Amino acid sequence: MAKDPISDLTYEAAKAQLDEVVLRLEDKDLPLDDMVTLWEQGERLAAVCEEKLAGAKARLEALRPGSNSESDSE
Known about the structure:
The chain is mainly alpha-helical and 74 residues long. 69% of the residues lie in helices and 0% in strands.
């Protein structure tokens, strides 16, 4: 199975594509099949954005003073 190219996007690229998908979904004349395909793509893009944000948050929290495992066990 080939890797989904969406998962390799940066946060900024995924967010830009997600914004474009949302704009296209607002077209009331879009055929249902196209809407479903865009919705699925949007779900994958949103998941990539959430994953990238969670990773960035974890990295920042690791840098926060007192965030080492020693202080977590107190």
